[in-house]
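ok posting inputs for the cytidine-5'-monophosphate job
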Amino acid sequence: MQNPIIAALDVPTAEQALKLAMEVAPAVGAFKIGKELFVAAGPDIVKRVRDTGTSVFLDLKFHDIPNTVAKAVASAVRLDVQMLTIHTCGGSAMMRGAEDAAQQTALQSGKNAPLVLGVTVLTSHDANTLGEIGCEANVGKQVERLAQLAVQSGLRGLVCSPLEIVDLRQLLPANIQLVTPGIRTGAEKSDDQKRTLTPREAMDAGANWLVIGRPIYAAENPRVAAEKILQSLR
Ligand code: C5P
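and the output
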């Protein structure tokens, strides 16, 4: 079994991120670098986290004209990331451009192409938010529509909420990788995640990867917390 734990490095400085990464690297499959850390610490943080020997998931959720997104993806491949995110509402040309850029740049630089993951409807959005931006569909239908468009556009993976896994598994080809946040073990304090699954439940529902932030980085001992989660999956 590949280690499916992606530990989110949701900390504000390079020093904190590297301390956490070095501590938990042996117990996780990848680290997620998001906007907060990337904007504060710059691209160099990707290289330094990669030096721990662990994969990097660059979660910057690109959404722009196809040419700009393709170039951003190419830059991410040169930084040696293994997973990255784009918004599926950027449309099919943008998604195809991103996937092509990932494949071609990887080929040119002798690397494996990263998994380009599509983000569908943000979990902070509801029917009102979709209405505000002129989208009539309900959230579930819009998630399905964007997920299918992503697959038709050549993407090989999606980010989804834990409660979407079962439906998307039925809808999409079996080789599509599903990455899910919203994971809670039950041991941590309650926080802003409302709809959660345990790591075991999410994997059983059909997830391939689990994005886990606070249950690891806010634990008293992050390494032990990650090891316990891994044990729960074996
Ligand atoms: O601390 P926690 O486990 O909630 O962190 C989850 C990570 O996944 C955070 O980096 C958060 O931004 C991200 N995420 C999320 N919910 C989404 C999409 C991303 O929690 N719908």
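notes: The radius of gyration is 17 Å. Residues 8, 10, 34, 123, 161, 181-182, 193, 211-215 surround cytidine-5'-monophosphate (CB under 6 Å).
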